[in-house]
């Protein structure tokens, strides 16, 4: 099945389109820019996040022309191609991945030299072998099915989108906020869970702390 992707090209100072979804028959690959606070040291991190999710099966509704419900839910694997803001930009000093999830919660961070050295080649290799990714996540091959082949064929395109959301593509705190304002509530949880609140200058995250919670109501 052809992947569905939002027809948006990432550019500097972009802020309206924050999440790219490559949706197949059984899986979806999500790509976005992410911002994070180290809970033990208060160091800020940001960069491209790629996440493999399973689609939740939905019954057909309405006529042959009716819009169908699409539910991208169960997380399987996550790669965070991040820089630490206390180290040189573009070194991927915080690049890591989570090979499996326990429900909604990711496993511990895993660091690999090859991931830091060339995160784009590493990500492309992972996307090109979803059977292995699924197995590492505790899933049988049929969980991804033929989507493994389709994602492999589109791995280069997915990685190109991720490159546009890399740490070095985000040039200011304001731009980072524009790309991640939808996770302001998550940032507030990070601040609340800091091992030592004194490690963080609140001014560094003021935009997220001041952002209203929730989504505007659609009428």
The string of secondary-structure elements, in order, is EEEEEEEHHHHHHHH
Q: How widely separated are the two ends? A: 33 Å
Number of strands: 7
Structurally, the number of domains stands at 1
The rounded Rg comes to: 18 Å
Sheet having the most strands: 5 strands, antiparallel
Unreliable spans are 4-17
Q: Can you list the strand order of the major beta sheet?
A: 1-2-3-4-5
Number of alpha- plus pi-helical segments? 8
What does this structure look like?
This protein is α+β, with helices and mostly antiparallel strands and 219 residues long. The protein has one domain (19-210). It contains eight helices and seven strands; from the N terminus they run βββββββαααααααα. The protein has a five-stranded antiparallel beta sheet with strand order 1-2-3-4-5, sandwiched between helices. A two-stranded antiparallel sheet has the order 6-7. Residues 4-17 have low confidence and may be disordered.
Give a short overview.
27% of the residues lie in helices and 22% in strands. With 219 residues, it is of the alpha+beta class.
